[in-house]
Structures are given as C-alpha cells and as structure tokens.
C-alpha cells in the first residue's frame, strides 16, 4: 500500500468516532431546520459554507425569529469565539500546510481540533493527514444534515430538547480527551476558569471572559514551563 493510501486509511479510522457523532447531530440539525420551514438546499448550504455545529443550531432560531444582521454577527462571535483561542495552538502545525491551509482553517471544529491537537508525527504526510481528517469530518456533518432534512420532510419528529445534542457532544469530547491525555492541567484550568466566570458574571456574560481567562492562565503556565526547560 502506497504512502498516500496509508495516510487516507489512517485519517479515516481516526475520524470514525466523529462520524458516529456527526451523522446523528447533523440529522438533528437537518430535522430542526426542516421543521422550521427550510428545505434541503438550506441545510446543504449551511453545512457546506458555515459548518459550525452549535452556531447552526442557534442559526435556526435566528432565521425563524427574523434577527438583524448585527444581532446575527454578535451572536456568531459569542458562540464561536472559542475557535480564536484554541486555533492559536494550531499555528505551528498549520504554518507549512500550503494549499491545504485555507480549508483546514475553515474546517477546524471542536472535534477536529481534538483529533489533531494530540496527533503523532507521521512524517512528510502530516499536512495531507490533517487535511483528510478535516474533510472527512466535514463530509460526515453534511451527510447527517442531508439525511435529517430528508427524513424531516417525510416523517414527523418532535424537536423538543434537540439543541442539547451539541452540549452532549462537547461533554463526550472532553471526556475522551481527559481519558486519553496524561496532562489534565489544561482541562482543570478550563473548568475552574469557566466556573469562576459563571459564578461572578452570570450565564449571559461569562463565555468571552472565561475564554480570555483560560488563555491568560495557560500562557503564564506555558512561559513558566519554558523557563524550566
């Protein structure tokens, strides 16, 4: 088997757990969007060009509620601001990605990040591997969305509580990382910082300050670690 085929195979096997989650969650979004009165083309376009699971769920409410452009922009920034922070940690890995870089930046979801942030070095095919992981995950999400939209057209579904599915996926990703990683300090910093901001700022204002606090603390810890070395 050639090197590229091995890389494709490895990337596919790595993303199988994400496939299981994305198909189901994508179906949930497709059903939710269909029940809101938006068909397959809307579902396909949002999943292809927005590709932000939690924001797509929120976007259904924005569409049906007639939200303004300003409201939509602010909501999008608040929901997806976490990408700015953990994306910083991928700069070194992505800097030599060449033609793959634009798409890989676009496709860096929470789950794709969790697969790539602790990957082993596989040599000269690193960039191809990261690209394939990204595009496989994207395909799973689009596939789930289309299935959900088509099912929602012919089978009546109750969408009550379906938004919690994204929260469930985040919890599952966190648990998997906790089990597979020996260094739990970043997770502890994230939990403590988030809880503190939630307690002192409330549920409507805690998200962005929590992200800044996590970044600040992790930067200090990183500098301290570098001085030790």
Provide an overview of this structure:
- The protein is built from twelve helices and no strands.
- It has two domains: 3-164, no CATH class; 182-229.
- The chain is mainly alpha-helical and 229 residues long.
- The chain has helices spanning 3-35, 40-49, 53-65, 69-80, 82-88, 91-94, 101-106, 110-116, 126-154, 164-180, 185-201, 207-228.
- What are the low-pLDDT stretches, counting only 5+ consecutive residues below 50? none
| Largest sheet properties | none
**Helix run count:** 12
Strand content: under 5%
The run of helices and strands is HHHHHHHHHHHH
Q: What is the β-strand count?
A: 0
- The rough form would be described as globular
Report mean pLDDT, rounded to a whole number: 82
Structural class: mainly alpha
Distance between the termini: 41 Å
Question: Structurally, how many domains make up the residues?
Answer: 2
| Proportion in helices | over 70%
Rounded Rg: 19 Å
Helix and strand topology:
Layout: H1 3-35, H2 40-49, H3 53-65, H4 69-80, H5 82-88, H6 91-94, H7 101-106, H8 110-116, H9 126-154, H10 164-180, H11 185-201, H12 207-228
Helix pairs in contact: 1-3, 1-9, 2-9, 3-4, 8-9, 11-12
């Amino acid at each position: 088997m050639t090197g590229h085929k091995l890389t494709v195979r490895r990337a596919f096997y790595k993303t199988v757990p994400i496939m299981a989650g994305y198909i189901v969650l994508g179906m949930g979004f497709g059903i939710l969007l269909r029940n809101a009165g938006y068909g397959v083309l809307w579902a396909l376009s949002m999943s292809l060009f927005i590709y932000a699971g939690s924001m797509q769920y929120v976007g259904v409410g924005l569409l049906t509620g007639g939200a303004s452009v300003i409201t939509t922009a602010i909501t999008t920034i608040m929901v997806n601001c976490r990408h700015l922070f953990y994306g910083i940690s991928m700069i070194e890995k992505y800097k030599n990605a060449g033609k793959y870089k634009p798409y890989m930046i676009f496709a860096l979801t929470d789950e794709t990040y969790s697969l790539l942030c602790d990957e082993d070095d596989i040599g000269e095919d690193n960039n191809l591997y990261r690209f394939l992981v990204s595009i496989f995950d994207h395909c799973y999400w689009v596939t789930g969305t289309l299935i959900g939209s088509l099912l929602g057209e012919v089978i009546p579904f109750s969408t009550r509580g379906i938004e919690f599915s994204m929260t469930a996926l985040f919890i599952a990703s966190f648990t998997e990382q906790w089990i597979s990683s020996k260094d739990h300090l970043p997770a502890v910093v994230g939990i403590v910082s988030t809880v503190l901001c939630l307690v002192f700022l409330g549920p409507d204002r805690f998200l962005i300050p929590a992200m800044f606090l996590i970044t600040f603390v992790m930067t200090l810890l990183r500098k301290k670690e570098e001085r030790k070395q």
